[in-house]
Design goal:
The chain is of the alpha/beta class. The strands form two sheets. The protein has a six-stranded mixed β-sheet with strand order 5-6-7-3-8-9, with helices on both faces. A hairpin with a 2-residue loop joins strand 8 and strand 9. Helix 3 crosses helix 4 and helix 3 runs parallel beside helix 5. The longest helix is centred in the C-terminal third of the chain and has 16 residues. The radius of gyration is 17 Å and the shape is globular. The C terminus is likely disordered.
């Protein structure tokens, strides 16, 4: 494990998010997500978890409040260069193979394509299915490729929204190892999940949302 960089963090102060006409998804949320930690965001459906993740990942703007990405950068473009995102959509091209999707991501980040794919193949246990069109995959196979694509460039901000969806027991075990590895190398890792067993296995901090408000937080997940 590398020493965590104290300047590498995401902080939210009294963040609100309102969707027209008057849906308040977040209500004054304050939180800190630090480097080298796996922060779990939990809560019932509609509690604001995915909205919070979207704001942390610069995919949505807060209606009010302050969001700081520390040394990740002060612009949306800078933060996105360090972003690894896995959401409900796999963000992969259906007619490309898994291999081609991963290689495309590597190329966009200026990485050696062949080496990047071979590392991903080994890390995520991608079998021969990686050579088939993405549209032919099972839900679990799609999730493995989505994870490999998102992490191919070793991002320093890793955001995972229900990452165990579709994974079998072996796939979840791989995911647990990968999440710990990402935190161990010093990344900020934030995971939205309903999977309590997975959360307990990998989580260092926990933020519980209820109707858009912070209901409960571990000491590390809240501003000091």
């Amino acid at each position: 494990m590398v020493a965590a960089d104290a300047s590498l963090r995401v902080e939210l102060a009294f963040v609100t998010k309102t969707f027209p006409p008057a849906v308040r998804a977040l209500r004054g949320v304050s939180a800190r997500f630090g480097a080298g930690q796996v922060s779990i965001v939990a809560g019932a459906n509609g509690s604001g978890k995915s909205t919070l993740l979207a704001i942390v990942g610069t995919l949505a703007a807060a209606t009010s409040g302050k969001v700081s990405h520390g040394s990740l950068g002060k612009t949306r473009e800078a933060v996105r260069r360090e972003l690894g995102w896995v959401g409900h959509d796999a963000l992969s091209y259906a007619d490309l193979s898994g291999r081609e999707n991963i290689e495309l991501a590597a190329r966009l980040h200026g990485m050696p394509v062949d080496a990047a794919f071979e590392a991903a193949r080994e890390r995520f246990h991608l079998a021969a299915f990686a050579e088939r069109p993405f549209r032919t995959y099972s839900r679990g196979q799609r999730q493995r490729v989505a994870l490999a694509r998102a992490l191919v460039h070793a991002p320093m901000l890793v955001l995972l929204d229900e990452p165990t969806t579709g994974l079998d027991k072996a796939g979840v075990a791989v995911l647990e190892r990968v999440v710990r590895e990402e935190a161990a190398r010093g990344a900020v890792v934030v995971v939205v999940t309903h999977d309590e067993a997975f959360a307990k296995s990998v989580g260092d901090e926990r933020l519980l949302l209820e109707r858009g408000e912070v209901k409960e937080a571990s000491s590390g997940a809240t501003p000091r």
